[in-house]
Amino acid sequence: MALRESLAYAETPTRAVATNAAKAKQRQPRRVSRQVARSAAVVVGILVGAVALWEGYKAMGQLTGDVIPFTSIPLPVSSSDYAMPHIWVIFDALMQPANAGTTQSLLVYYLDQTSVTLREAGYGLVIGALIGVVLAVALREVQFLTRGVLPWLVISQTIPLVALAPIIVVWAGSAGMPSWIAVTVIAAYLAFFPVTVNMLTGLNAIDPIHDEFMQSINAPRWFTLLFVRFPTALPNLFTGLRLAATASVIGAIVGELSAGTGLGIGRAILTAAYYYSNAPENLFAAVLIASLAGVVFVQVITIVEAIALRKRTN
Amino acid sequence: MTINTPVTDARPAISLRNVTKTFDAGGGLVHALDDIDLDIAPGAFVSLLGPSGCGKSTLLRVIGDLVKPTEGVVEVNGRSAEAARKAREYGMAFQAPGLMDWRTIRRNIELPLQVQGVPRNERRARAEEMLELVRLTGFENHRPRQLSGGMQQRVAIARALAFQPKLLLMDEPLGALDEMNREYLQRELLRIWRSTGTTIVFVTHSVSEAVFLSTEVVVMSPRPGRIADRIPIDLPYPRTDETRMTEEFYHAESRVRTALHSVLEPVQVG
């Protein structure tokens, strides 16, 4: 009697959950596409807003003679075409030939240079991420390292990059390495830190119940690390990787400024800055392309994260 | 011994002698457990009952070697608690299911077997057996979040039982559930206990739960944590929902309640 009752009770939630899961599966593609549409709308909205602000500021500055309306307080930045080229002038510059004597447009040239930078940043990110994860595990598992090493890692990140980059370039050069290796090292140097810090937080954030349970079954340390701490830290790892992605792009660009090659979007930015008085729009165009490249880079990480964690959030 | 089930093995499954546990809580020493003596027979179902702060959870963790006693001796099946834990004689379940989101239900149950190095096929077979035991066959590939709280708790019990432990230690495992689920899982737990013969130590703050499940209820008093009374429950098994409505059940409940009230400070009653 009691058995039959409990069976009946067991079956009710069973069916309910099974049908819910089935429904969720059907619903998912539509929900995803709606999400994509919504975030695309947000991006377009922000871009339109940014253009409107830029051009609005220029128009207002031209009308008032670069002062805040009805006051004599000067605007922080001149609205002249020299300081702030029109958006359409910047886009037009991208369509023009990159150099006299070539048919390659500035856009293609910048994208080419950006791919060089992204490759350096990509290698730097992978190396930095590996070092970051290994360091986090070492800091977590070896007690005296936590107290002894962590402050030095913090100090390592406070050294000004503009001072460090040329040193690394010179060292790599004297070792006979190509300059892209120096740039990669600089990118890795910036990338490892956010990975270490976030990963360490994640490794320590194990659920106390999981911890007690693993102790109760006498799980070895490495087992708990691999099968409980690592999965627990995965979301933190991706947070660190996203920060590391932007840091590695910045590292690569700054590295290129110090490196002797003529390659990379960093070099292109430097050249555009050098010839600013001739063509101010070129610098804005280069910065625009460089920042888009950073966004693409972070988006790649976000997509990998969504795939890696898709089963956890249902 | 006050256990009503027939005991063939004279040696207790769990034996505590003069167990004391003090914590250094900043401002001074807190006596979580004070001079605990307790024997639990093999196959018994013993509930630790008492108000919050009576040390019942600490006592459970001392038995499970998750907390070391400050003084005293804990023996499990004739050896130290640490040796028993290292020999993987414990299964533990907690107030929250504590399942791992990144694993399927089957892989959650397999985890203790994976630690033991049980081969994959055998692991899978055992996990399915355990799922059948807690009546969740068909949910192997679900994720913990797709299950209700009661179902998750059943998975946690299955996980604790996976390597057929000699001892099942449970820390208010049904505390977070609604009444329906709770009574259902109480029946289930008794069924599992009777089919596995496992010794169970069960922490609870519910009088009727303790009476319904146990062969013996250990009532504890707070500050310092002490054993105030040990009350054998002589109700026959199998116990069903009808058992809850019998006069004998009411009498057993009253006895436990009286013992509990005598340890409660007036402030806590209100």
Folded structure, characterized:
The complex is a heterodimer of chains A (about 325) and B (about 270). Chain A is mainly alpha-helical and about 325 residues long. Chain A is built from 10 helices and no strands. In chain A, helix 8 runs antiparallel to helix 10 (about 280-310). The two termini of chain A are about 35 Å apart. With about 270 residues, chain B is of the alpha/beta class. Chain B folds into 2 domains: about 15-90 and about 165-270, Rossmann fold, CATH 3.40.50; about 100-165, no CATH class. Helix content of chain B is about 35%, strand content about 25%. Chain B has helices spanning about 55-65, 80-85, 105-115, 120-135, 150-160, 180-195, 205-215, 245-265, 265-270; strands spanning about 15-25, 30-40, 45-50, 70-75, 80, 90-95, 165-170, 200-205, 215-220, 225-230. In chain B, the strands form 2 sheets. In chain B, strands 6-7-8-3-9-10 form a 6-stranded mixed beta sheet, sandwiched between helices. Chain B has a 4-stranded antiparallel beta sheet with strand order 2-1-4-5. In chain B, strand 1 and strand 2 (about 30-40) form a beta hairpin. The interface of A and B includes residues 2, 10, 17, 231 and 234 of A.
Which key terms come to mind for this protein?
heterodimer, A: 314 residues, MetI-like fold, 2 domains, 80% helix, disordered N terminus, B: 270 residues, alpha/beta, six-stranded mixed beta sheet, four-stranded antiparallel beta sheet, 10 strands, globular, ABC transporter ATP-binding protein (chain B), ABC_transporter_ATP-bind (chain B)
List the helices and strands and how they pair.
The complex is a heterodimer of chains A (314) and B (270).
Chain A: H1 2-64, H2 87-95, H3 106-141, H4 143-158, H5 161-174, H6 179-204, H7 208-216, H8 221-258, H9 265-274, H10 280-308
Chain B: E1 14-24, E2 29-40, E3 45-49, H1 56-63, E4 71-76, E5 79-80, H2 81-86, E6 90-93, H3 105-116, H4 120-133, H5 149-161, E7 167-171, H6 179-196, E8 199-204, H7 207-213, E9 216-221, E10 226-232, H8 247-263, H9 266-269
Parallel strand pairs in B: 3-8, 3-9, 6-7, 7-8
Antiparallel strand pairs in B: 1-2, 1-4, 4-5, 9-10
Helix pairs in contact in B: 3-4, 3-5, 4-5, 7-8
